[in-house]
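Render this sequence as a predicted structure.
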Amino acid sequence: MRYGPNLLEEILRRTDIVQLVGRRVKLTRKGQAFWGCCPFHGEKTASFKVENARRTYHCFGCGKGGDAFKWLMETEGLSFPEAVERLAGEAGVELPKWSPEDEAREEKKKSLYDVIEAAAKFFEEQLAGPAGKAAREYLKGRALDLDTAKKFRLGYAPAAGSALIAHLTSLNVTMDDMIAAGLARAGDENHGVRDFFFNRLMFPIADGRGRIVAFGGRGLAADAKPKYINTGETEFFSKGRLLYNFHQARPAGIKAQTIIVCEGYMDVIALVRAGFEAAVAPLGTALTEDQLQLLWKVAPEPVCSFDGDAAGKKAALRAAHIALPHLKPGHSLRFAFIPGDDDPDSLIRTFGAAAMQKVLDAAEPLADVLWKSETEGKDLTTPERRAGLERTLADLVGQITDGTIADYYRRDFDSRVFDAFKRRPKSNRPSQGGNRDWKRGRGDRNSRFPPQPEGVSEAVKASLLVRNAAGAVMVKESEILRLVLNEPELAARHAEMLAALPFSDLHLDRLRAELLNVAASGSRLEKQGLENHLIRRGMADIVARLKAPTHEMGEGTASGEDADARFLRAASQLRDMAELGPEQKAAWERFKREPTEEHQREALRFRQDRSGE
């Protein structure tokens, strides 16, 4: 809804901005203005001025200022339309009516909100009743009591496949509305209409206003697949645009100027119970651009606290790559890694809130995470490998659209490379030309694939054996992404599996993250539309490589397999190829240290044994 300037002026005229600001800031009158300590930065001498005559606030210390709409947007994280509606209601200003079509659409949405609220109450009642015994036992095993369940409105979806449908039918809710609200599945040739959730612990998901718009369900059966599912995409729910517990975390986060992002519902609940009220979680997917913008409305540097295992570190790296193009002065991400195999929930239950606070206090800047991801555990003993590192770092800097931030990152990485490799004795230093190349931005942002090492003879490089050894994993990763490019809906249908796959190639992993981002946003792109989107995101060369009709890009799938079967087969093979035991890993490390034909043959044998090729 667009509001005219006269209407907005009328709302501001009727709003007492001194009274509005005074709800949060202690103000003292001096002449015609009111003064107080700025709520946006720490200060002891009042430099924050509020004037009803001008209908504005302004801090002479940090420069923050604006009108009543801006105040609500900055202090409560409201969108502009939400701020207009709030102040209009308080000022008694009637907002213009919509068209009959708009009114009908809005009334329909309101009725669906009521339907979802009725479902939430039903789930809550089931959790407290006889049918919810197993769910209550599960909560007890996670050290959660019924008071906590009530605070978060947890519930239970009965095992019977139509219990919710029967309940809502008794309330005169139509089947069309149940399906539109994401509470029932349409029938097919094998099943009639049935509940979307059954035999699951239910986590209500609210929008920014606190209205329940969807649910997340954790399976209680040992063989439940998948373990977690969310309501499907609806008119008012897209899992890539909301965050679990955001409506509760937003005011706490604005007050503390920090917000914690963790991986799951139980982590959020554990954090809130431990006193970390500004805690949220993505809804079963990697962090998306829309979710990142929500976080930045609350705090300039959200802290991503992911599990300490390999999957958690992968999730952190995906979040880092998603953030890079959107970095702006003062806004970034920090990363707090849970030690060992713990997550926030298990860490707090075992060691208490103090242990979690220690982890948060040690949160690392985004630049540190990127540097470690490219250097830790990697053999960088040769000039060629160091040059490859510089090329990769330059590619990362090339993703940053803000010129000032990109320059600072370039200098930071330049300094790290110099300290790590170029302060050594002269005999160990790479050529000075490499450093000059780096300063000139040698890594062309359109060159996404780093050069191959030069330490192997032409005869060895030409052999099929070595080509397979060097690229076996990337071939499988490429095959998977090529399948998704050909049928974009695979990313939505298999989002959790695609996100969990152990991608090793940085550039393919970046493309995978963008595919997940598109899938999570609810966008329904056709093949060409998806390719155009990826090209706009600076991945034209990767798309071109994947589209190339060569064996290396994933030709040779079993005849008769549909896209889903081919995807699942390739995903299984990639997992097998990555799951190497100690002996196999040692062989691969020997090959990386000494890329001889013998070591490559040994490493390839293990890869082939695992992949079944």
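Summary. The CA atoms of residues 316 and 345 lie 18 Å apart. Residues 426-470, 551-560, 607-613 have pLDDT under 50 and may be disordered.
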